[in-house]
Amino acid sequence: MSEPVSVSVLTVTYNPGEFLEKFLGSVSAVDRQGIDLEVIVVDNGSTDGSLSWLRDNHPDIELLINDENNYARALNRGIARSRGEFVVISNNDATVDEGWLQGFLTVFGRDETIGAVQSKILFAGSNILNSVGVEEIEEFYFTDIGWEKEDSRRYAKAARREYVSGGSVMFRRACLEDVGPWDETFIMYMEDIDYSLRCRERGWEVWYSPDSVLHHHYHGSTSDQLCKYLCNRNRFYILAKHFPLQLPDCIASSHFFKQGEMDLLYRALLSSVRVMCEHQETGTVLNVLEKLRDQLLKHLGKVGTVKFFSHLEVVLGLRPVRVGIYDHAGHFAGGGQRYVAEMATVMQDRYEVTYIFNNEVSLDKYREWFDIDLSRCAVKILPIPFFEERDAFMPDEGIVMLESHNVFDVVARESLNYDIFINANMLGKVNPLAPVSIFVCHFPDRERSQFFQVDKYTHLVINGDYTGEWVQKRWQLDPTQRIYPPVHMYNPDSSAADKEKLILSVSRFEISESKKQVEMVQTFDRLCREHPEQTSGWKMVLAGGAIPNNTYLDKVYEAVEQAGCDIAVLPNAPVADIRDLYRRAAIFWHACGLDEERPERVEHFGMTTVEAMQNFCVPIVIDGGGQREIVEHEHSGFRFSSLEELQRYTLHMLEDTDERCRLAERAYERSHSFNRDVFRGELDKLLEQVELDLLGQDVL
Amino acid sequence: MNAAWMIRNGEFREIIRAIFVEIGHRTNDVRTWWLRVKPKKLVRVPYSAYEDPTRCIPPSPRPTHTRLVPPPDMRADPQRVSAGIENILADIVIEEAGES
Predict the structure, then answer these.
(1) pLDDT tens sequence across A453-497
(2) Is A84 exposed, middle or buried (0-12, 13-18, 19+ CB in 10 A)?
(3) What is the ipTM of this complex?
(4) Count of other CB atoms within 10 angstroms of residue A123
(5) Does A266 lie at the interface with B, CB-CB under 8 angstroms?
(6) I need a labelling partner for A169 at 20 to 30 A (CA). Which of A194, A229, A396, B86 fits?
(7) Which is it for strands A35-43 and A5-13: parallel, antiparallel or unpaired?
(8) Where are the beta strands (DSSP E) in A485-586?
(9) CB-based contact (8 Å) between A570 and chain B?
């Protein structure tokens, strides 16, 4: 009596439902004469209770839990655990005939070079064929032989095939060991085509057996969309691995191309070239890249082609990631500049960062203004001819309306030189051509108009909920991430108790008059006149940036002259002075947006309020815009809607020192929600997503 | 505005103002009507010299997630591949806006 043949039956499950019970029932009923059988189930993350059913009812079956939902990986895990001389891979939404295993073995007996044998797969409950092998139809699209045909004598003989289906196939262990693991980059679909090719490349034949019969219920466990996507992507993988020279010519026949899904085509081609570089020699790769260039120029144009090959360099790890940060207003200090400079400080340690300005700017200025070191960033000056001709202080997109072309295209062209392009200061007409782009929005100042490009950015980052609300109202766009500005003005010498009789306001002297310094001067003057006893010894300081020839600053000086109280105006004071003012000030005022109807004239966030809170100042701020997100009324400060309220809340703080100290402590606690650590945490999340966009590979 | 009330109260400046307001309304009505019915001229303005065909708005459905993976273990020589890609990029000249 000869030794029994050991056979391992391996099936991969993902929410198999009742089919698994039927499948295993039919397997247990097969003719096992001369066969030593083991059954292995590898589960890809079922949640339908079938695993507990399996454990309860089939303790003899080995159950492996895959660490991710990847069919090819599940096969590798199962094969690695199996002991059989022959290994069957089978769908489990099926039942098998009694002669299922014997039918395989009969064909294997024909020749030692047969590495794999596929069953006759019928649609369950019918005499209609699902598959008796696989063949190429055209341009590397594959189909089941016999698909939807009635079973007949034509399919009654064992035959050699070019490809076999993974739906029900037995492998000789020697073949599996010789060919190696299944390619997990396929995830699922067409991995059997790849394996058939690899078997044949190693000299193994693949066959079909009419005597091994499986009845397939065709219960798909994946969506049609996923199936379509992976089949089309994996077609490119097959080409990249086995027929690389054909890859460029097969772009136009891909479903991605035919259906205009050029973004998916772009992604699939990138990962396919990556696969090609892993499997092909240098000469072949270079040859294919040249052919690919010609095809891409035809299908994607010059911009798409340059973007593809530049992106490819990063995907292949041939150069570091390049980041371009465009700030058209980088030549003067503002909250927006500081926001993106904080981003740049983090990114310059990970990537090659270049700041793009339209005017001459030295990054040393950022150290002077914000104490931020950008020494590892490069600078590129990129004048925009349209604005150069008009001798503009900085580009203003509002005047670009009637031009025949987008004057910001010069910046768009520059963005193509980077892998990540960051539009730092809300020029909504800059078309981002980098593979990944970030539009940082501090507020949507303008409505959508001609050349509007913001909807083309990969990420739309907002500085607070107020901005987010108006991004949706004005642009009908959903922000992708909210990152509050980084505020870090802590001073170990500051305390709630050790304060001077000083009311401080820090905001730019805007010529648009939106910051309301004049109104604050008048209110402080009135407060002093009406309550001389309480305000005795109190003074006020107005600090903030100011551009040259600032007419509004003149008005502020005029208001101060008319007032009869102690008020100092400090335009463009150094950071050290501002820091000292925060330490000394007991109360902080912010009135930007008072009595304004236009949302852009209300403070969008209000970094200086947080700075003051970090130094135990009690904030008394406008009840509007981003200030509502920062100051909790009567808990960590006050929010006013009129100058009368500003005066009343201030008087209350002047009169009740204990209460002022309590509010100052709470303001300090509240300020931690907007500090640099929180900003960097959120930025890390953004960069994680950005890197996935740029370099990530598909997983389920 | 009630004309009789204005005349009775001698508000002649208000009458004149109301007449001009009414003329403004009527003129605007005519202008609106003309804009609606006048023959439309088709003006072709290039939206941008740098359209990117690989970007679909909204993006095509991609039913997978992504995961970072290490750079590939290339069988091909990375340096020669890098040089090849650089050559390809150097050969593609993109005209500045306005050129063609």
Answers:
(1) 999 999 999 999 999 999 999 999 999 999 999 998 999 999 999
(2) buried
(3) 0.85
(4) 17
(5) yes
(6) A229
(7) parallel
(8) 502-506, 539-544, 567-571
(9) no
